[in-house]
Here is the input.
Amino acid sequence: MTLMKPLTFALVVFAGTASAQDVVWAEKTPALGQADLPVGVLSPEALMQLRALGEDLFAATFTPLDGAGRPRSTQAGLPTKTKRPLKNDFARTSGPDAGACGSCHNLPILGGAGDFVTNVFASEGFANHDFETTDGEFSLERGTNHLFGAGLIELLAREMTEDLHRLRDDAISAARDMNAPQTVVLETKGVGFGMITALPDGLLDLSKIEGVDADLVIRPFTQKGVVPSLRQFAVNAMNQHHGMQASERFGTRWTGESDFDEDGYSAEMSAGDISALVAWQAGLPVPTQARDLPQDWIDAATRGKDTFAEMGCVSCHRPALPLRSLAFADPGPFDTAGTLSTHDVETPAIYDLAGLEWAAELPRDDQGRVLVPLWGDLKRHEISDGEVDALGNELFGQGFVDRTQFITAELWGVGSTAPYGHRNDMPALDQVIRAHGGDARAARDAYVNSDQTTQLDIIAFLKSLRIETQ
Here is the structure.
């Protein structure tokens, strides 16, 4: 018999002016529908309550009474049945491997990164197999990234995707109207992604695209840049790490079952639950450059910041990217089947991040755009070569991305989130800088060949980029 979870509720938030009717509690049902989702522009009070629920879910330790565990479902993002029931409730390889999101995302505080001990394993290519080894032939080892500023990262990715799609569509129209091939440079927010050529018959030459998939969708999350949204990130993680299945992917719409993992509980994560998790993560403040440092550290960091730029590190680790709007729509526009998107709902929720306290301190350019100080470019790059390959020695790809390509790591918060590298296996910043090859080789060599004082200045600068803990 399939049971409903006891004493589990979702927050349903309605648009409009804040009042007692803005926020109501409604018992969750296994049916997926707009009634289980926040809708419209949320008032500050409603957003605060939704985010509070999301924080509770992020910090909560799930139990079997919540539906934790997945005896007949694998860790795969695509709903897949196991060939046999899992032997253990927890498994460090294929998962479930944690009781709570905060078990891994906790450095320096909830929502942060994780130490080497929290590494997870992505079983790319083995969706229907519960592997029992960490050998690189079977899994991709991944460190835990922090989530601070993640809402702005997703908003940047959406705007950049819209820009790239506009360039592509304009080229197609021009090729048709002029009856001649049209080549367009793919550049958005100062970041180049190669070029495409549109032919008069509507075909596209995509062979010169760089650092993004052929669909020109920027996917800013995970070290390989293969997840487009916090919503997809949450749905994936809930199943893999906790055995908590989201109804929007594992429910009757796509699987024909309300209890896909056959653990006796249905509707383990409603669409409203996922929305709350997204709202909390999207509203996490941005990391900043620490101000409460000794003067000698400040002086060294100032020199190091200038040298960081002079060495060419900012060609990938860009200090800031401009953002036109802080209105975060959820569900977003670029998710596909298995994760709710804007196209699946009548009215998405809008979280105005500009109303959050930390947003007021963000700098703006002369056009009024927010300058997001991410120290990244949301682009994939070759990170290894024949001589320097410590960051590119994986044995198979993830998400059809070349083995040696990784998305540029945003450096904001890097001073709070050791160890480093996509496997969290480099305790010191000096180590991970020296491990840069490929597209970063020239900048890496400039660092390696500089004197110790110069190197220490750069490390002082990087260590000043911190996540606030109060």
User: Anything to note?
Assistant: The first strand starts at residue 3 and ends at 4.
